[in-house]
Design goal:
Length: 114
């Protein structure tokens, strides 16, 4: 998923520090890029489950859309602007996602994602 900050680890338990809000868009962007293909929002949620809540991931995706770092394809999948999209039989979204910038760390995010 990205850089994990582990506080404690043994054979039965791993304790990590959850990422802060300004770090989440970078993690989401890197996840989409690492996949190498457009991904659905539910795939992103599954990847970050237990570490980051769905509402925080949704805010990060919205932020990346506003910065035009990722795009939404007609079937609702998300990818980087250079990714090739192939139509699938997957269900389509009824309404497009609203792109909104996060209130903090905009300059910092633009530098780390670029």
């Amino acid at each position: 998923m990205g850089e994990k900050r582990v506080l404690y680890e043994d054979k039965d338990l791993v304790v990590e520090i959850a990422p802060r809000d300004p770090e989440i868009p970078v993690l989401v962007y890197n996840f989409i890029k690492k996949k190498g293909r457009p991904v659905f929002f539910q795939e992103i949620i599954r990847e970050f489950s237990g570490v980051v809540g769905e509402d925080r991931v949704r805010r990060a995706v919205s932020h990346l859309l506003a910065l035009k770092k990722i795009i939404e394809f007609p079937d609702g999948s998300l990818g980087t602007p250079g990714m090739e999209w192939k139509p699938t039989g997957a269900k389509r979204r009824r309404r497009k996602r609203v792109a909104r910038l996060m209130d903090y760390g905009i300059e910092e995010l633009q530098l780390t994602i670029a």
